[in-house]
Amino acid sequence: KIAAAQGGLFTSRTQEILNRCVNIRRLSLIIISDDKGRFTAKVPAVLAKLVESIDEATISELREILLCMRVIVYTTRTSDNAYLFPLILYEVIKVLRPLATEVPESEQYTADELAKIQLVHQFFDFVAALKIDSIEI
Questions:
Q1: What is the residue-averaged pLDDT of the chain?
Q2: For residue 115, what are the CA distances in angstroms to 92, 100, 130?
């Protein structure tokens, strides 16, 4: 797939993915570096875009999306986590649903499937380590 790019006339699919990953990483950095809570009002909109991106995300994009979700869970107030966590939980579990329903005949997962399992495990490991009172795992 070739699409118009900012830096040049055309860009490849690989470059598009890389640009999205970099932008999501920048967003994570902006959210975590904000000490005044200016972005708290924007969290639902950001989360909606991240959730929208999960379904068609590559492993690289999924890694950055889950990193940004971890940053959001870490930086939001406890009362907001009680509201946001069920949505985040549902979307993260959706990543694993195809892996649970479609067991390969060889009973071995591909590298991408294993990477997804690892990323989701890292997300839940992080959330469990936070020990947020309003979230019981």
A1: 78
A2: 14, 14, 23
